[in-house]
Every structure is written in C-alpha cells, then in structure tokens.
C-alpha cells in the first residue's frame, strides 16, 4: 500500500442534497472511531490548535482516567477565558480507511460534543473541508475518501450549547 501522492486532486462537485443546498451556518459535526468505539458528535474546528476529548466522553467509553498523562495546562477559547486541561492521552482514531494515533487534551466540562478535532488531526490527515457541503475529504492510498457531516446532529449540539 503506497502513501497518498502529494499531488492528489481533491475536488467538490456540486452534489449537495436538497437539505444541504438550503442556506445554513451549521458547524461540521462528524462521527469517528476512537479506540475501536464509534464516537458521534465530534466537532471539526479548524480554528482549534488542539484535539480535545471530554472527561464525560471517556467515562461513557469506559476508558480509565489512568490513561491520561497528568499535565494540567490552560487552554484559551475565543472569549479569552482559560480552561485547565486534566492532561493528555493518545488514542487510535479511525476515519474511513485511515488510522492515526492522535493526541487529545482532556477537559472536564459539560458540553454537547464528545470531542473536537482541530488543526493537528486535520493536518495529519491532510483534510480539505467544505462547510457548505458539510463534509471532509482526504487522500488515502486507494484514492480520496469523504466523511459526511451530520447536519441534524450539528443543529442539536448547537442548540444544546446555547442552554
């Protein structure tokens, strides 16, 4: 199996479904397989400089917090408010046919998302995203693969975050 070519062409044909073609400002929310567990409600955030997973998600996945390397550090959101991490851990993340070991910062706060994948994961996967079509595309040795976002789940998560 060869590595993806640096000149692989990734394109987006205008094949939006009727639902996607409606004007929207929905966030890109996908499902990934993390540690062999299908994890829904994963926010794709290219403005986030880290990959984040929440303590509650780890508990629902039945992953012992002993797996977290305790290295508390502050991370800052757009508001400038700091949130302390519990530490970090590496997980095997599968997206389509591609598997990568990915570092996640662990945060203990309530949220409607299970995880956030930021620029470290997006860049390691060589992802190109379309917010209009709510999908990710990335090169693989077998060609370009697509992960379709879940518009309904995006809207549910967004409303829950406002509460």
From TrEMBL:
Listed Gene3D superfamilies: Acid Proteases
SUPFAM superfamilies per UniProt: Acid proteases
Coiled coil: none
PANTHER family registered for this protein in UniProt: OS03G0439900 PROTEIN, OS08G0508500 PROTEIN
Protein name: Aspartic peptidase DDI1-type domain-containing protein
